[in-house]
Amino acid sequence: MRWKLIVLPVLAVIIVAAALPARSQVIYSAQEGKQPFTVGVGISNFSDDWGITNPRQLGITVAGDWRPPLPGRLRGIGIEGEGRDINWDTPSGISGHRMDTLLGGPMYQWRRPGRVRPFVKFLMGIGSLDFPSPGSTYNHDTRTVVAPGGGVDVRAWSRVSVRVDYEYQYWSQLFGRHDLTPNGFTIGAVYDFGQRTIN
Questions:
Q1: Residue 75's domain spans which residues?
Q2: Domain-located, residue 22
Q3: Could you tell me if residue 139 is left (phi over 0), alpha (psi between -120 and 50 degrees) or otherwise beta?
Q4: What is the number of domains present in the chain?
Q5: CA of 199: how far to CAs of 18, 111, 137, 156, in Å?
Q6: What share of the chain in percent tops pLDDT 70?
Q7: Which of 35, 116, 143, 164 is the most buried (most CB within 10 A)?
Q8: Are 18 and 159 in contact (CB under 8 A)?
Q9: In contact, 37 and 194? CB cutoff 8 Å
Q10: Does some domain include residue 107?
Q11: What is the predicted pLDDT for the residue at 198?
Q12: Predicted pLDDT at 75
């Protein structure tokens, strides 16, 4: 009799414990497809870090993300590539000012179920700068750019999300000992080939 009082509860615990892992899943299969790509375009508003007035300019950004097939929480690790042209709405005092960047690097996006997916990134690449320089032939320079940033994708419809992104760029010693640190926001739309519609 004593034996049954011990064996039956232990057996019940073992059966329940064995059944629990069969139900656990990191992400619902109906929400994550097999194409680990996200592409998008957006409008950028950047502080130029130029002179005393620190003007702002507008531009366009094109970006793409790729996520290798990794298990569990590593699933959000990926690589982002982006191109940006800051060339619109130039203040009259710095006419001819333009910043172009081509950057890439690691990113991590929380690929959890639901509409909101935050991400962080650390990009590196090349930047090209055109600047007003009256009376001088030196009006263009190219530098290595480092750019940490982050943002969030908010699913709007099916595989389309609104992306809001902040980036802080670091252009090392552009003019003598002065480092240029333009930064700003980008808002746009992304299409996620790896996200399926939630029914």
A1: 28-192
A2: no
A3: alpha
A4: 1
A5: 29, 18, 61, 14
A6: 77
A7: 143
A8: no
A9: yes
A10: yes
A11: 47
A12: 87
